[in-house]
Design brief:
single chain, 468 residues, mainly beta, 25-stranded parallel β-sheet, two-stranded antiparallel ribbon, 7% helix, globular, binds calcium ion
């Protein structure tokens, strides 16, 4: 074959694939020289060399942009990643196993992944999401697995030595108008962490107006701090396949973005695989995050549960402020797999302590009747936790229930997240708070209920709540 014919063959393969350039053997032909993306240049396809987006630059992404193993994506403060709408697969940035992302913004100059549409035209599902993959362990039924994001990239390993792996740093990064739901089995999230290791730094991230979940974890050990998930279509904070990370200072704000009949502030699984309630990681662990200082608020409408804890998940939750929810907390076992999730409650491996619930309308989970009226009695004694045996989830000694939302909060401000300080109490809520530094070195000062005391870490410009 002469050179022209080889070139023609590659071009034909490119056209036939429609997404990736393929060589004659059918494997992806990735860009092999370093790229700097600015001034409205476009990333597309896969990269076997590093990609840089300079500070304050605008870089377009059309379809999938995949950083392959050994490469890095470095994005400077103030840069904007404009994600082309209407693509199939949906425009997304994927950091493969062995690649890293270094995206370090500041409060005044965040890094923004947003819709390529004009302001005023933007909507949830305009594009896919930011997907990061590592080699940390998980409890999937095979050592590695692929997820639904179109490209066949491999996730995880069965080697616990990889649990401390770093996939880079995200700091002051906002993802908005993402979350394309291509099919019922293919749902992009704002931030997706797939078997990402604890060496990764994630601090100050915001997912807003996302079609599916704001943030979803598939196994791994990544820890996250200063997180906002707002106006999501499905769940605010979602995990499965044995996520064992830690999280502190988290805001989940559910508003009218809901496009699902199973929207939850937290949706937590051990695994949905066969016998998933009982599956464990190679070192015997289940989904078992430790979370401190979380604020979970809603607009008190139907189909919104505070938490759906199911399929064998564990989890330790401290210093939670939970307010203005229609529905409550659901703890579910899977038929035929034993009473695993409820057993975790009994065993104390799934519990909510040192927390405050205010203005919860219903006392029975999945009560789909209209949510009207505030609570007037302590629901922990009348069924907040959906029946006998669940009371161990919340210790009456350290969890307070109030009928009405107090602490200077405005439920209207939660819906609009405006003015600023919508999530800041009028005074630090310290009654029943515990010291999260006792939970390990990841955790920092936070002997108060909720995601903040009177110092608002969402201000400075990095967290914004645009509607379109
Ligand atoms: Ca999802
Ligand atoms: Ca979900
Ligand atoms: Ca889920
Ligand atoms: Ca859900």
């Amino acid at each position: 074959m002469n050179t022209l014919k080889i070139t023609l063959a590659i071009v034909l393969a490119t056209v036939a694939n429609g997404c990736f350039k393929l060589d004659e053997s059918g494997t992806q032909q990735c860009i092999a020289t370093p790229v700097s993306c600015s001034g409205g240049a476009t990333l597309s396809g896969c990269y076997n060399a590093s990609v840089t987006v300079p500070a304050n630059a605008t870089c377009n992404v059309t379809g999938l942009a995949i950083m392959k193993s050994g490469t890095s994506l470095v994005i400077g403060a103030g840069a904007t990643m404009k994600m082309t709408p209407g693509q199939s697969p949906a425009s997304s940035v994927i950091i493969d196993q062995g690649a890293t992302i270094t995206a370090i913004g500041t409060a005044a100059s965040p890094i923004t992944f947003t819709s390529g549409k004009d302001v005023g035209q933007r909507a949830p599902q305009d594009w896919g999401g930011l997907i990061i993959r590592g080699r940390a362990t998980h409890n999937f039924t095979t050592a590695t697995f692929t997820t639904e994001f179109d490209d066949g990239g491999v996730v995880g390993s069965n080697n616990s030595a990889n649990d401390t792996e770093s996939s880079g740093t995200l700091k002051y990064v906002r993802v908005e108008f993402a979350g394309k739901q291509a099919t019922s089995l293919k749902e992009y999230n704002g931030f997706t962490f797939e078997a990402v290791g604890s060496g990764t730094t994630v601090d100050f991230i915001h997912a807003h107006n996302v079609g599916d979940d704001g943030i979803e974890f598939f196994g791994g050990t990544v820890n996250v701090k200063h997180v906002i998930s707002s106006a999501f279509g499905d769940d605010g904070f979602d995990w499965t396949y044995g996520w064992r990370g830690k999280a502190q200072y988290v805001i989940v704000s559910m508003t009218d973005g809901d496009s699902s009949n199973d929207s939850n502030g937290i949706e937590a699984d051990n695994s949905d695989q066969p016998n998933g309630d009982n599956l464990t990681t190679p070192d015997g662990k289940k989904s078992s995050p430790t979370i401190a200082n979380m604020t979970m608020v809603s607009n008190n409408k139907q189909w919104r549960q505070i938490m759906r804890l199911r399929r064998g998940t564990q989890g330790l939750f401290y210093n939670f402020y939970v307010a203005n929810w229609c529905d409550t907390i659901l703890v579910e076992d899977t038929a035929g797999q034993g009473n695993v999730t409820t057993g975790n409650v009994t065993a104390g491996t799934l519990k909510i302590q040192n927390s405050l619930f205010e203005g919860i309308s219903r006392n029975t989970a999945q009560d789909r009747a209209a949510c009207t009226g505030a609570i007037t009695t302590n629901k922990d004694s009348t069924g907040l936790l959906n029946g006998a045996g669940y009371d161990a989830l919340t210790s009456a000694a350290t969890v307070t229930m109030n009928a009405a939302v107090g602490n200077g909060f405005s439920t209207t401000n939660w819906v609009t997240a405006s003015p600023t300080n919508a999530f800041r109490p009028s005074a630090a809520i310290t009654t029943n708070a515990m010291d999260p530094t006792t939970l390990g070195s990841f955790f920092t000062t936070g002997t108060y209920i909720g995601a903040m005391d009177t110092t608002d870490w969402t201000t400075g410009g990095w967290a914004t709540f645009p509607t379109n």
